[in-house]
Design goal:
alpha/beta; Rossmann fold; Alpha-Beta Plaits; six-stranded mixed sheet; flat
């Protein structure tokens, strides 16, 4: 805590410094000024918690100093020391925030008491200011989420028969009182190009944050609308327009350019029609969503899609369900060639389709996972596979797209082959099932040792319970799953330790450990020495 003493008489300033036990009061630095002007100059450089000032001084006096402090919002507590028992001075002191008015000669006890009171008052006010500041920070953090949820709720409510009400907080912030029409545009993050997925390393929250910022920087320039995260759909950013509706193409061009400059990627947009605000929000949203779902994933088309430009997916529908028996026979044969033939027969039919929409791929996903779930239920009665939980989902749609954003049937083939081959191992057809599947798990860890690998990940990938994996893996491989993984990582680390330019923390990260101390502990468990000791050999 700091203090400023203002008095035109040096001996008075010296007396004040000598009369008080400053250390006991918790005051660490004492500054001095000989008039109000000098004090104001100092106040511009320092932030004293307490100011002790005389009233009658040359140049700017104590009353003017106190008035300046109040006008400029200084939070310092002030104590007046004066040689004049003047009611006018006392009243002026109180008017401008003076806490005490003490007469010269100075009484040490009175001054100490006044300082203690000023210090306590400042601390209480400072604590209140900090609490207010913390509340403001929390409100500012919550506000965007709250705002996004209000807009998301409005879109959902607009689909019901009830009259949609615009929350007052949104009306006030965005000036929506006189808005009559609106238009919904969906920016989809569900079909990412692979380079964007790699750039953000799977962090969709960060990607969404960046995209919304770019959109709103452009939209707020003329209050044409607002972009927000749709809380009812994981991969949708909603661009809601309420002004300049006829210029939506120009606005999208600006947004696309801004995203290209900042993220170096392009995204697909579904555009709905202009509708009455707010009750038409749902209709415009549904039109935008339909436009995205109906886009032809086989064509290198525009990134902007409108529902009237779509096609009728039912005409070209192809069902995985109609191939289920063929897949089942191939899986139960246990022969990879039979599985490959069954998969190719389905893909040949898919290649003949003139168009494949997102809606069609989502239907295939549902049918495929339902088929696997039914098969697993059949196996559950005979084998120790998980029967209660749903099967793990296949690859997300964006990972089935090529660099141009088109559906890759080759990636679809790999996914189908992987899932069906795993089930072939589970059936036990064509050989020792447990040995085969445990060997596959070991191979999986050898290929992914540098990533985070959990028992849950393995369980979901191979459709086996965690308990079953733990027991059978140790029986077949001679050690538990994570000792096996740890041994692989340590062997890889031993090779990397031969490079003197790599730090231990870098090597730890390269073999799958975020914590280099934990890595050293695991290394010592297998090698009997630390990584540093091994390197020095």
């Amino acid at each position: 805590m700091n203090i400023l003493i203002v008095d035109d008489e040096q001996h008075v300033r010296e007396a004040i410094k000598l009369l008080i036990d400053w250390e006991q009061l918790g005051i660490h630095q004492i500054f001095e000024a000989d008039n109000g002007d000098s004090a104001i100059e100092l106040l511009g450089k320092i932030q004293p918690e307490i100011v002790i000032t005389d009233m009658r001084m040359p140049s700017r006096d104590g009353v003017e100093l106190l008035a300046w402090m109040k006008e400029h919002g200084r939070k310092s507590k002030s104590i007046v020391i004066s040689g004049y028992d003047d009611f006018h001075l006392v009243r002026s002191s109180m008017k401008y925030g003076g806490q005490d008015y003490l007469l010269k000669p100075i009484d040490p006890e009175q001054l100490t008491e006044a300082l203690q009171k000023a210090k306590l008052s400042w601390e209480q006010e400072d604590q209140a200011r900090r609490l207010d500041q913390q509340r403001s920070i929390e409100i500012n953090q919550i506000k965007p989420v709250y705002r996004d949820k209000l807009f998301s709720t409005m879109i959902s409510e607009a689909g019901s028969d009830a009259q949609v009400t615009v929350p007052a907080v949104l009306k006030g912030e965005f000036g929506l009182e006189n808005v009559e029409q609106c238009q919904v545009i969906i920016l989809s993050t569900g079909m990412l190009a692979s380079q964007i997925s790699r750039k953000f390393n799977g962090n969709r929250d960060l990607l969404t944050f960046c995209l919304i910022n770019v959109c709103n920087e452009i939209l707020k320039q003329n209050n044409s609308g607002f972009a927000f995260r749709h809380w009812n759909s994981d991969h949708e950013i909603i661009i809601l327009l309420w002004h300049r509706l006829t210029e939506w193409e120009a606005l999208l061009a600006l947004i696309t350019g801004g995203i290209l400059n900042s993220i170096h990627g392009r995204f697909h947009y579904g555009v709905g029609q202009a509708q009455p605000f707010p009750n038409g929000l749902f209709l415009s949203y549904q039109a935008a969503r339909t436009a995205l779902k109906q886009r032809n994933l086989l064509a290198e088309s525009s990134y902007i899609h409108r529902s009237e430009q779509g096609f009728t997916t039912g005409v070209y529908s192809l069902s995985i369900a109609s191939y289920e028996e063929r897949f089942r026979l191939a899986v139960w044969s246990g022969k990879e060639k039979d599985i490959e033939t069954a998969v190719e027969s389905f893909l040949d039919a898919a290649r003949d389709l003139p168009a494949i929409s997102q809606e069609q791929v989502e239907l295939w996903r549902f049918e495929y996972e339902s088929m696997l779930s039914r098969w697993r239920q059949d196996l559950a009665a005979k084998q120790e596979v998980q029967a209660s939980s749903e099967p793990p989902p296949g690859l997300p749609l964006f990972l089935l797209l090529d660099e141009q954003g088109r559906l890759s049937l080759e990636l679809c083939r790999r996914e189908l082959m992987n899932g069906l081959t795993v089930f072939a191992a589970l059936t036990g057809a064509g050989g020792n099932k447990e040995h085969s599947i445990m060997r596959d798990i070991a191979k999986y860890m050898e290929q992914h040792y540098n990533r985070e690998v959990t028992l849950q990940d393995i369980s979901e990938r191979f459709y086996l319970s965690r308990e079953y994996i733990s027991r059978r893996f140790k029986q077949e491989m001679g050690e538990n799953v994570f000792d096996y993984l740890g041994r692989i990582r340590v062997e890889k680390a031993k090779l990397l330790l031969q490079n003197p330019n790599l730090k231990i923390a870098q090597i730890a990260e390269m073999v799958g450990y975020d914590d280099d101390k934990y890595f050293s502990k695991v290394f010592k468990k297998f090698e009997g020495q630390s990584p540093n000791q091994y390197r020095k050999l």
